[in-house]
Amino acid sequence: MLKQIKSDIYHLMHPKMAFFLTSIAKDGKPNVMACAWATPVSEEPPIVIVCVEKSAYTAELIKETREFAINIPNKKLLKAIWICGKTSGRDTDKFLKAKLKQRMANSLKVPLIAECVGYIECKLYKTVDAGECYAFFGNVLYAEADDAFFKKGMRTEAAEIPLHLGGSRIMYFRGDNAKED
C-alpha cells in the first residue's frame, strides 16, 4: 500500500554520498562543512551542483569567492563529518576541531582535506535560488582520486564511502556489503 509522504520527501532519493565541501573567505580563512546534496549535471563540460542552506556560512563564502571543492572522504573520517556537520565555521575553525589537515588545491585558492580519497575543484558557474537553499552550479576545473579507492572511473571495494541515509544515519558501502553505523 502506498502512503503519502508529507515531509522529508528528499529521503526518497537517499542514500547520498556524504562529503566535505570546502570554501574560503576573501581574507584567506578556510572553511569546511559536511554535505550530502550534490550531483553531476553535465559531462561535457563537466558541471556539478551542490545545494547549501542560504543562511550557512559556506553559502556566503561560495557567493563571495565563486569557488568550492568537493572532498570525498572514506569511513575513517566519519567522526570529522559529524563535527563539520554540527558546527558553524563563522566562529569555529572546523579544520582544527575535526583534526583535518589542509592541502593546496590544484586550480583554486580553496583548501582541500588531505585525508580524503577524492577531490572535485569547482569554479562557480551559476547560482539558483532553490527554496531554503542555493543550488551552486560549479564548472569542474580539476578532479583527482586515490587509485587505491577509484579504478577505471569507479569506486573500488576498499573505498568505504559514507552514504547519508537522512538525519543522523550514515552507512558505508564496501563491495557487495552495506553496513550502517
Strand order of the largest sheet: 3-2-6-9-10-5-4
Report the CATH superfamily. Electron Transport, Fmn-binding Protein, Chain A
Distance between the ends: 29 Å
CATH architecture assignment name = Roll
Task: Give the amount of beta strand, in percent.
Answer: over 45%
How many H/I helical runs? 3
Secondary structure tally: strands: 15
Low-confidence residue ranges: none
Mean residue pLDDT:
89
What fold name goes in the CATH topology slot?
Pnp Oxidase, Chain A
What series of H and E elements makes up the topology? EEEEEHEHHEEEEEEEEE
CATH class: Mainly Beta
Characterize the biggest β-sheet: 7 strands, antiparallel
Helix-strand category: mainly beta
The tally of domains stands at: 1
How much helix is in the residues?
10-25%
Taking all Cα atoms into account, the compactness measure Rg is 16 Å
State the shape: globular
